[in-house]
Amino acid sequence: MASSYLLCFSTITIWFILCAKHVSSQTCWRDTPCSDIITAAFPGEWEADIFAPASRTISPATIFDLSTGEEVGSWPTTFTLASNQSEVYLDFGKEVGSIVTLQYEVSSVNGAGAIGLAFTEAKNWVGWDSDFSNGDYSRPDGAIYGNFSSAGNYTYVMPDENLRGGFCYMTLFLVGDAASATITNVNLELSFQPTWSNLQAYQGYFHSNDDLLNQIWYSGAYTLQVDAIHPLTGRAWPLPDEAWLNTGELGPGDTINTDGAKRDRTVWPGDMAVAIPAAFYSTDGIE
Ligand SMILES: *[C@@H]1O[C@H](CO)[C@@H](O)[C@H](O)[C@H]1NC(C)=O
Ligand SMILES: *[C@@H]1O[C@H](CO)[C@@H](O)[C@H](O)[C@H]1NC(C)=O
Ligand SMILES: *[C@@H]1O[C@H](CO)[C@@H](O)[C@H](O)[C@H]1NC(C)=O
């Protein structure tokens, strides 16, 4: 009896391992149940136009010096920040969003120090302040900080409440007396289209003999996708005293279509009149 249980158990284990292997690089957002959509409905050359990445965990593409705008390196690499100097911004190459994890090694600091993280959608706004998203237009969103007070290796995971819905650029800067820190790893866990294990599994397609038009279509489709968010990650109201707060409850279900990935992360019925038919034709990522 015991051995047959064991056999059954190991068969199930193997089955799980095989299934897990099959979707190894692709998962749904945290514990959101996955939908049945796992592959593109119309495979073809147009899939090359899809902006959505193949994996939910991504890294930046290029690193630039904040003060000069010069390229410092491309990913993967490591780079060192010193207090009030050598600030950088990381270019993800497209609109992305969600939870950032930063690993860094502090080699020196005198007292309290911190690495600041600030986010913008447009390059002309990169700097110590994130662009507006929280609904209070009297102040920018500011920055969030990974704090430290001694040398050592650190991992900073952005708190869930500070989930950053939409950005292309992330600025990193160091504050603290005589501080120096080397960034050893950066990654981003995408939260949009939370029930899809494969973010490229579009259920519609578009293709013409005009490459620009094809890209315009697919950038629209991707915009709809980044606006399709988990209902517990909307903009919270009333707004917080500092930074931003994306723990707002928007409604039922596992996905909700909003007006924007960064701002407002809110359902506006007027926007939906345009967005929903377009989403049906492009991704069909509608619940
Ligand atoms: C570092 O820069 C910040 C912001 O510009 C400024 O408030 C602070 O005084 C500077 N600190 C030092 C040590 O230069
Ligand atoms: C972290 O560092 C920032 C910037 O120096 C500071 O404003 C904030 O109070 C610090 N937070 C904690 C918990 O020490
Ligand atoms: C950080 O970790 C690396 C690798 O384990 C180690 O060599 C290094 O000494 C650590 N740095 C500090 C400041 O503890």
TrEMBL record:
InterPro entries named among the record's database cross-references: 6hp_glycosidase-like_sf
Example GO BP: carbohydrate metabolic process
Keywords for this protein: Signal
Keyword Signal: yes
Span of the signal peptide: 1-25
Gene3D superfamilies: 1.50.10.10
Protein name: Uu.00g126510.m01.CDS01
Organism of origin: Anthostomella pinea
